[in-house]
Amino acid sequence: MPKLTRRGFIAASVAAGATRVLPTIATRSGGRRILTLVYDKSLGMMRAIERVVP
Q1: Residue 20 — pLDDT band, cuts 50, 70, 90?
Q2: Quick check: helix, strand or coil at residue 25?
Q3: Contact, 49 vs 36, CB < 8 A?
Q4: This protein's superkingdom (predicted)?
Q5: What is the pTM of this model?
Q6: Alpha carbon 47 to chain centroid distance?
Q7: Are 52 and 31 in contact (CB under 8 A)?
Q8: How far apart, in whole angstroms, are the C-alpha atoms of residue 11 and residue 5?
Q9: Residues of the chain with pLDDT > 70: what percent?
Q10: How far, in Å, CA of 24 to CA of 29, rounded?
Q11: Is the distance from CB of 47 to CB of 27 less than 8 angstroms?
């Protein structure tokens, strides 16, 4: 079992909380979510870009 320092524990807790809270905030905004697929030449693959439009 990996040892967590105090800072590591706090960072992990905040990250876990953010993953639960942020999706609900995004859906409450009432805006439309637009997903666009773009070909990124530098990566050589398709990339998804998501944006919220009011």
Answers
A1: confident
A2: helix
A3: yes
A4: Bacteria
A5: 0.38
A6: 15
A7: yes
A8: 10
A9: 76
A10: 9
A11: no
